[in-house]
Specification:
Blueprint (H helix, E strand, L loop, with lengths): L9 H14 L12 H22 L1 H6 L2 H14 L10 H11 L11 H16 L9 E2 L9 E3 L3 E6 L20 E7 L5 E6 L1 H12 L5 H12 L4 H18 L2 E5 L1
Antiparallel strand pairs: 1-6, 2-6, 3-4, 4-5
Helix pairs in contact: 2-4, 5-6, 7-8, 8-9
Length: 258
C-alpha cells in the first residue's frame, strides 16, 4: 500500500509528491497528471546519478559486491537517507553516515565494510580539499630534531583494524588483524593523492607531534623510546630522524615551526 503525504498547500503538495515518488516509487504515488513514462525518466535519471557517484567514490567496494546486492544497497540509501548537503562531492560522506548510523546490517555485508568505505572516501576528500598549506609559518629546511616538525594538513594519519589497502576480490579478510594497520594518506606537491603504510612507532610519532605544537622532534622520539623501554634511546632518535626526513621528502612533513 502506498503512503500518503501530509496536507500542504497545493503547489508544495505537488513538489513533495513529485520528489517523494522519485525517491521511492513503491511507497509514494506520482502526481496524477504526469504520465508514468515521463516520471520513469526522472526516476532513472536521479537514481542513476546517485548510484554513479557512489560507484565513483567506492570502486573497490562495488567490485566486491554482487550486482543485486550493490543495487539494493544503493537503492536503500537513495530511498531512505536524507542528505544534509547539496554538494555531489559529499555524497560519499553521506553514504558513510547512512551505513554507520541508519542502515540495518545485512548478512552479505563484509565485516570490513565501514573501514573500506572510509579508506576509499579519504582519497576523494583529500583530492577535493581546498585547505591551503601554512607555508609562511614553516621553515622548510628546519632542524627536525631541534624544532617542531609540522605535518601537512593534507596528510592524514589513519588507523584501521583491517588492512584496507590490500582488500580486493581475491583478498577479503573475515576478521580484524592482530595489529592495527597505520596508513598516511597525503596529497603531494603535484596534487596527487597517495597512501603510505607506516609502523606503529611512526604513527605514535605523528600523533604526539599533532597533539603538542611546541614538542620538538627529539623530545617526541625520546618519549617514544621511554614508552618502548628501549635500551638505546639514541637509536630511536637516529631512526626517527631518518623517518622524519623521509616524510619531509614526501611532503607529509612541511618543515619546522617558525
Amino acid at each position: 500500500m502506498q503512503k500518503q503525504l501530509p496536507e500542504r498547500p497545493h503547489f508544495q503538495q505537488l513538489q513533495y509528491q513529485f520528489a517523494a515518488h522519485i525517491r521511492n516509487p513503491d511507497k509514494y504515488e506520482k502526481p496524477a497528471d504526469i504520465e508514468d513514462r515521463r516520471m520513469g525518466i526522472y526516476r532513472d535519471l536521479f537514481f542513476n546519478n546517485v548510484e554513479g557517484f557512489l560507484s565513483g567514490n567506492f570502486p573497490v567496494f562495488k567490485q566486491l559486491c554482487a550486482d543485486d546486492y550493490w543495487q539494493r544497497v544503493a537503492r536503500n540509501f537513495f530511498d531512505n537517507h536524507h542528505c544534509h548537503t547539496p554538494y555531489f562531492l559529499e555524497i560519499g560522506q553521506e553514504f558513510m553516515a547512512y551505513v554507520a548510523n541508519e542502515r540495518e546490517p545485512e548478512d552479505e555485508d563484509p565485516v570490513f565494510m565501514q573501514e573500506l568505505l572510509h579508506y576509499e572516501w579519504v582519497e576523494l576528500a583529500l583530492d577535493a580539499s581546498e585547505v591551503e598549506l601554512p607555508l609562511d609559518d614553516v621553515d622548510a629546511n628546519g632542524d627536525l630534531l631541534a624544532g617542531h616538525p609540522v605535518q601537512s594538513p593534507l596528510a592524514w594519519l589513519l588507523s584501521y583494524q583491517f588492512p584496507v589497502h590490500c582488500i580486493r576480490p581475491e583478498y577479503q579478510p573475515d576478521k580484524p588483524s592482530e595489529q592495527p594497520t597505520f596508513l598516511i594518506a597525503y596529497r603531494n606537491r603535484e596534487d596527487e593523492v597517495n597512501f603510505m603504510e607506516v609502523n606503529s612507532v611512526t604513527g605514535r610519532l605523528l600523533y604526539l607531534l599533532s597533539e603538542d605544537e611546541n614538542l620538538r622532534g627529539e623530545q617526541a622520539l625520546r618519549q617514544i623510546a621511554e614508552e618502548m623501554k628501549h635500551p638505546e634511546p639514541q637509536q630511536v632518535v637516529n631512526g626517527g630522524l631518518d623517518t622524519l626526513e623521509h616524510l619531509r621528502a614526501k611532503g607529509i612533513i612541511l618543515g619546522t615551526k617558525q
